[in-house]
Write a structure and sequence with these properties.
The chain has helices spanning 2-44, 49-63, 83-103, 309-316, 338-350, 368-388, 413-419; strands at 65-68, 76-79, 112-117, 131-135, 138-143, 146-151, 155-159, 171-180, 189-196, 206-215, 218-227, 233-239, 246-255, 258-263, 266-271, 279-285, 296-304, 318-321, 356-361, 396-402, 421-426. With 427 residues, it is an alpha+beta fold. The protein has 3 domains: 18-103, no CATH class; 112-304, Exo-inulinase, domain 1 (Jelly Rolls), CATH 2.60.120.560; 309-426, OmpA-like domain (60s Ribosomal Protein L30, Chain: A, 2-Layer Sandwich). Strands 3, 5, 6, 8, 13, 14, 15 and 17 form an 8-stranded antiparallel β-sheet that branches. Strand 5 (138-143) and strand 6 form a beta hairpin. It is globular. 34% of the residues are buried.
Length: 427
């Protein structure tokens, strides 16, 4: 009987060890998979330290559940998420990616707006009132519910300015959204920007030419040619990541000689020595013999170059930010605002005694009551975002001013653009 018991105990021990080994292998596999997911996501989301921490926190919370035992313990318990939870986490990460890209962008929007066209007041099917038609045909259309300037192939336009031959300062920024149909590049869309030294835009007068879009099945292609101050011709090319059936944000900066181009916060072109232009125009077509796609731009803004935040604050006791923008009639912060938010975070971290009242301002479009509510919501959204990026909430307060404190004429597009602002007032 004892021999039988010993044999049974022996086999039970072997079975237990086998089960333990199997269990350990399963747990080890789960840990390995979780680690792989973490590495992959972190590789995609590298950015400034403060933003990294926010992303890591969100990732740890939403991707897997677990607990670490002890401050320096190597023991960690993991449980995999359900498919629905993983899908929600992936969607959250997709939302975070553009924010992270903009947060590490070195693009700084200009401070003094001298041209702004969001097309909100334009009539559908009409020619956009703030532009001049150079060639072809364009009109105002709705693209995914957004009013935009839609180009027929060969459409060529320039902004209407007081002096059409000389309006770009030596330091300026230009921003707008452009439409891309598909990721595969099967729908041909070609955008061209011509920067010239007069208003003719003749090829011999073009100082900088930037071409981008889905061109001849090249997905997210960008190419540029330019002249140096000594009239030497040079060129370059790059590429950008695109989303299917979506708006993309183009940002350009020119600083005396340095020209940079960004798509969705990622710098594509970096030209250190270009001749200074005086004008610009937009041309769009579908060359390449492929099925044409929708060609459209919207939310066009030009501004004079930016002054460092700290210098503005020392001079006025506050600084105005036009780099923080929102969806129309909402308090949703646009992704392209994150480069500006990151500058503010850096300023406050470098100056730990700084405290600000975050004040939201609107133009006079709409009722005073709705504008007051909107400004309060926007100022609070900015405060919450800065707090999420590592700034102690005790250093910030939110205040909505509505339309009560205009700094420009609300009867013009540029004036309304200046009045839609976020002010950081030193406390």
């Amino acid at each position: 009987m004892k021999k039988v018991l010993l044999l049974v105990s022996f086999f039970l021990l072997i079975a237990t060890q086998a089960e333990a080994q199997s269990w350990l292998e399963k747990v080890g596999k789960k840990v390995e998979n979780a680690a792989k997911r973490t590495i992959e996501r972190k590789a995609e989301q590298k950015t400034e330290e403060a933003v990294d921490k926010a992303v890591d926190k969100a990732t740890d919370k939403d991707t897997y559940k677990g607990s670490s035992k002890g401050k320096n313990s190597e023991t960690t318990e993991w449980t995999e998420m359900e498919p629905g939870e993983i899908e929600r986490a992936d969607k959250k990460q997709d939302k975070l990616r553009p924010e992270m890209t903009y947060a590490k962008s070195d693009f700084v929007p200009g401070d003094e707006i001298f041209f702004d066209d969001d097309l909100v007041d334009e009539q559908m099917g009409e020619f956009p009132s703030q532009w001049d038609l150079l060639e072809g045909s364009v009109d105002v259309a709705a693209i995914e519910g957004v009013k935009a300037i839609a180009f027929e192939p060969g459409g060529f336009i320039a902004p209407l300015m007081k002096d059409m031959a000389d309006y770009l300062p030596e330091v300026f920024t230009l921003e707008f959204d452009f439409w891309i149909n598909d990721k595969e590049g099967t729908l041909d869309q070609e955008y061209k920007l011509f920067f010239s030294d007069d208003k003719t835009y003749h090829p011999s007068d073009r100082l900088i030419q930037l071409k981008f879009g889905n061109v001849s099945r090249q997905k997210g292609a960008m190419a540029w040619t330019y002249k140096t101050p000594s009239d030497e011709s040079r060129d370059g090319e790059g590429a950008f990541e695109i989303k299917e059936h979506a708006w993309h944000h183009l940002s350009l900066s020119f600083n005396k000689r340095a020209f940079k181009a960004y798509v969705n916060g990622t710098r594509i072109a970096n030209i250190p020595n270009a001749a200074a232009p005086k004008t610009f125009a937009v041309y769009a077509s579908d060359w390449g013999g492929i099925t044409p796609g929708t060609i459209a731009i919207t939310n066009i803004r030009m501004a004079k170059g930016a002054v460092p935040l700290y210098d503005r604050m020392l001079t006025e006791g506050k600084f105005i930010s036009y780099g923080i923008t929102f969806d129309v009639a909402k308090a949703t912060i646009k992704p392209e605002s994150y480069s500006e938010l990151n500058r503010i975070v850096t300023l406050m971290k470098e100056n730990p005694d700084l405290k600000f009242s975050v004040e939201g301002h609107t133009d006079s479009t709409g009722s005073a009551a709705s504008n007051q509510t909107l400004s309060e919501q926007r100022s609070q959204a900015v405060l919450d975002k800065l707090a999420g990026m590592g700034i102690d909430e005790s250093r910030l307060s939110a205040s909505g001013k509505g339309q009560t404190s205009p700094i420009a004429d609300n009867t013009t597009d540029e004036g309304r653009a200046k009045n839609r602002r976020v002010e950081f007032v030193k406390q």
